[in-house]
Amino acid sequence: MSSDAAGDAGLLGAACPIPITNYSEIVLAHGSGGKLSHQLMQKMVLPQFRNELLDPLHDGAIFSLDGERIAFSTDSYVVNPIFFPGGDIGKLAVHGTVNDLAMCGARPLYLSVGFILEEGTPMEEFWRIVQSMREAADLSGVKLVTGDTKVVDRGKADKIFINTSGIGVIPDGVDINPTRAHPGDKIIMSGQMAVHGIAIMSVREGLEFETEIASDTAPLSGLVEAILNVSKDVHVLRDPTRGGITSALTEIAQAAKVGMLLNEAAIPISEEVKGACEILGLDPLYVANEGKLLAVVAADDAARVLDKMRQHPLGRAAAIIGEVTDGHPGFVMMKTRVGGTRVVDMLSGEQLPRIC
Amino acid sequence: MKYLDEYRSEELAQKIVAEIHRTVTKPWVLMEVCGGQTHSIVKYGIDRLLPQSVELVHGPGCPVCVTSLEMIDKAHAIAQRPDVIFCSFGDMLRVPGSHGDLLVLKSRGADIRIVYSPVDCLKIARANPDKKVVFFAIGFETTAPSNAMSVWQAKKQGVSNFSVLVSHVLVPPSIASILQSPLNRVQGFLGPGHVCVVMGYREYEPLAERFRVPIVITGFEPIDILQGTLMTLRQLEAGTHTVENQYPRVVNRDGNKVAQDLVNSVFEVCDRKWRGVGSIPKSGYKLRYEFHEHDAERIFDVREIDTAEPAHCISGLVLRGVKKPHDCACFGKVCTPETPQGATMVSAEGACAAYYAYGRHLELQKGLAEVAHA
Amino acid sequence: MNLIYAKIVEVFIEEDMRMGRVQVGGAIKKVPLDLLTEARPGDTVLLADGVAISKVRPDESP
Q1: CA dihedral of B127, B128, B133, B139, whole degrees rounded to 10
Q2: Nearest residue in chain A measured CA to CA from B193
C-alpha cells in the first residue's frame, strides 16, 4: 500500500477500495446488473458484512429456523416509467421478490413493502399501483404483512420507488444453490428472452417505437413448484433480470467453478423483440427479463423438466439453451449462429446503443 | 427477419469458408475498414473460421474512436452549461475526455440525452424553447445525411435553439493515410459498405489503382464479410487490384445522389484531427457558413484544448492495422471498457472494445483460445 | 449510430417532410423518407441513424 493510501486509511478508517482510475462517484451503470454493479458490491459492500449466508450471493439468503429452512430476500424498484405495457412498478415489486424467493426453491409466504413517494405524485397513480400490488400478491399467494411510507421533496425522487422484502419456506428435499451446477447439466430457459427490457425501452421518452411487446412480469413460484414436483435434480434456478441471461449465467459459472456452452440458435426470442433490438442496437443477451427463469438441471431429468415447463402457461416456449462443461471454469462460451465460438462476458457498463 | 437471417446462415457460411480454404495459397493481410465489420467479425468468431494464413486487421472506421480529444473536451464544456440539453448517440457517453466522461457530467446534473437519430433532437428543441439543444454530430459519410437533414430542417423550420457540434470524418483519406505509412502491412481491403450506400464507390477506384490494392465494398452480416473476404483473397491470389462490390443489395457505383446533394449543401470538406492518428488533410466535414447559426462551436465559443493521449496506449497503431488489441500490454488489464486508456477501447465498435466485449481478454488469461478454435 | 433494414408500411407527409412508418421485425418506427424519392410501401430500406438512405433490392440473395 502506498503511503498516500495509508494516510487516507488513517483519516477515514478505511481507504476507498474502488481504484482511483474508476468512477469517483456513482453513475447509472453501477445499477446495470453488469460489471460495475458487481464491482461495487464485491469491493465496497460485501467485505464489510462477510458471513456464510451472504457470501454465496444467491438471489436470497437461506437459513434454518425451528427446523424449517427459510429463504429471505429483498429488492428495490425504480423503473421509469412507472406504468408500462404489461405492468407497473407495483406489480414488478411484488413479482420480483416473489421470484427471488422462488429461485431459492422456496414457497413465498410474506412480503414487506417500503414506499418512497415524491411530493406531487398524483394520488390516482399511487392508488392504481397499490391495487396492482394487491392483485399481484393474491396471484402469487403471498401476504403483505408489514410496510412503511416516506415522502420526499419534489424532484428528490421520481414519483415512486418501492422496496419489497420477502420470506418463504423451502420444502424438504429441495436444494437449489448456484454452486450445484455440475458438468453435464443442461441449461433450460423458460421462455423468450429480453421481453421486459424491450417493453420498457419502447415507452422511454425519445426512443418511441410502436410495438405490441408487453412486459413478461409474472410470479414464477407456480412454475418452480411444478418443476420441483417432477425432479429432485434441479440444481440451480435464476431469474435473469438486470444484465440479462449473460450476467445470470456468468454468476452461476463463477459460483460453481464450472464452464458453460450455449447454443445461440437455441435461445428463444420473438421476432418483435429481435426487431426492437435491431432498432435500439441492443444485444438481447444483456436485456432484462422478468417472469423468466433459467434452470440448471441434471441431464437425465432435463427432458422431463422441459416437458413440465412447456405445459405451464409461463413456460410454453421453454428450451434447452446449453450445458454445463468442466472446461474453462468461470466462463460462459457460446456457439454463434454461423458456427464460430466466443466467450460471453458480463455486461460492461450500461448497455448502450451500438454505433456505425 | 428478412435480409438478416439469410446472411447469418451457418450452412452458407461453411460453404464460403471451404471455398476460402481452397482459394488461399499464401499468407495475406486484409483490413476491414468499418467498426461495424470488426464488431461482426469478433461477435460471430468469423476470423476463427479463416485459414491461419489469412490475417484480418481492424481499420479506422469507428467514428467514436477517432473523435479527437479536443472535440470531446469541447462537447463536455458545452454539456456542462445549465442552459443546454446535450444530445448524443449512446456510445459517446462513455468516451473519456481530459476530465471524465459524459456519464459523470450527467451524474453531476448535466442534462444529457441519448438519441437514436439527430432528427429527433428537433422535437426536443421545440419542446424546450428556453433551452439550447446541441447534438454531437460525429460519424463517417453514412451518418452525414441524417446529421445534414437535422441542420437543414432546423434552418427551414426556424428551430433556432438547435445546433450541432460537428466532428465528421471521411473514409478515403484515412485509407490513403494507412497505405502511405511505412508501417503498412495491409494488402487488401473490405471496403465500407454503408459509407458507399451514400457515396457510391467511384472514389475508391483511384485508391485501388494508385496503391495497387484490391478493395471489395462489403456488408456487415457474417455472410457478407465471408463473401467480401473470399472476393478480396481471389484478387490477391490472381494479382488483380480492382474495386468490387459484394454489397449490391444497397450499394451502387454512384451512391445516393439526393443524400450527397443534401450533405454537400450543409457541409464542406475540411482538415480533421483523428484521435490516436493525428491530423489528416481534407479528411472531415464542417458546417458551411450558411448554417453558422446552428454551429455549436461558434455559439458556445469553445476554445481549443490540446490534450495528449496516454503514452502507453497503442490505439493509433491499432486504428491503422499495424497492431492488434492483444499486442498491447495494457489490454484487458489497466485498459478495459470501464477504464479505457484510448480511442479503440472507448466505443463498442472500437477494435479493443470488441475484443473485450466478446471475451478475448479472458481467453488471453485462461488459454481459452484453444477452446474457441476447437 | 445504427444501421438497420426496415420495411415501409405507410408513407405520409409530416411537418413538410416525407415520412414513413417502417417495420423492423415486429416493431414499427417513424422515419424520414426524404432521401428516397421513389420509395413506396412494401419496399425494404436501409436506415442510418433513423433516416432511410437506400432501397434494398429484393432480388439479391446470398
Answers
A1: -20
A2: A356
